[in-house]
Amino acid sequence: MKKINELNLLKNDLSHFYIILGDEKKNKKDVLDFLKEKINFIYQKNSDFFDFSGSDLFIDQVRKIKSINSVSKKQENKYRIFFLDYKKWSIESQNAFLKTLEEPLENTIFFLFITNSDILLDTIKSRAQILKGYIFLNQEDGENFLKLEYQERIKIIKKLESEQYLDFLDSIENALLENKKNIENISEVFKKFLELKSQSKFKGSNVNYILEFLALYLPKIK
């Protein structure tokens, strides 16, 4: 596991239900790596792995999840794993899902991937271990960074996890391109930025130092 290190538990300590906050795609990969390492659960070869995802979780999908969960696991599979990745959860769907959580089956684990838990009912959250995974970094993060003075930029860098460094550089690159008309000597600035970004990908490179240099070097935008 890289970011979601709270999951690094003994096999018999696994919970029935986890809520993983942040970047769903990266967090899914982390959880799959963990399951493979800790309980030898290889999802490609496992008929008891179910990945439900979409924009809205509707009541029919909750019923399907409940129906699958009510069927006995395949004899060769010790665990049954559900991934749930939906942007919106209606109150009706949450209440229906709650009934499934209230009667957990042995060795069945639900992983709910969501940007933040604000849209979830307290009754749902109270039954889960809530873990912070990779957060989303987008153009706005880089743009906000470029609007700050040096000392404030350093505070932002210090709050980043090491796994977020490269994503943050991508965010800054997008912000530079979007604001190129407002940056003096943009060609020179962008060339230097790309040079440092390239160096950050070398094994053993000190990306934190590169970010601190950029905090000083990059011009402030309005």
Tell me the CATH superfamily of the largest domain. P-loop containing nucleotide triphosphate hydrolases
What is the helix tally?
9
- Unreliable runs: none
Shape: elongated
CATH class of the largest domain: Alpha Beta
Largest sheet: 5 strands, parallel
- How much beta, percentage-wise? 15-25%
Rg result? 21 Å
Number of strands: 5
Helix % is 40-55%
Widest β-sheet, arrangement of strands: 2-3-4-1-5
How many domains?
2
Strand-and-helix sequence, N→C? Answer: EHEHEHEHEHHHHH
The appropriate CATH architecture of the largest domain is: 3-Layer(aba) Sandwich
Rounded mean pLDDT score: 86
Which key features would you list for this structure?
222 residues; alpha/beta; Rossmann fold; 2 domains; 5-stranded parallel β-sheet; 9 helices; 5 strands; elongated
Walkthrough of the structure:
There is one protein chain. With 222 residues, the protein is of the alpha/beta class. It folds into two domains: 5-132, P-loop containing nucleotide triphosphate hydrolases (Rossmann fold); 139-217. The chain is 46% helix and 16% strand. It contains nine helices and five strands, in the order βαβαβαβαβααααα. The chain has helices at residues 24-39, 59-70, 91-102, 122-125, 139-146, 150-159, 165-178, 186-200, 207-217; strands at residues 17-21, 49-57, 80-89, 108-114, 129-132. Strands 2-3-4-1-5 form a five-stranded parallel beta sheet, sandwiched between helices. β3, α3 (91-102) and β4 (108-114) form a beta-alpha-beta unit. α5 crosses α7 (165-178). The radius of gyration is 21 Å and the shape is elongated.
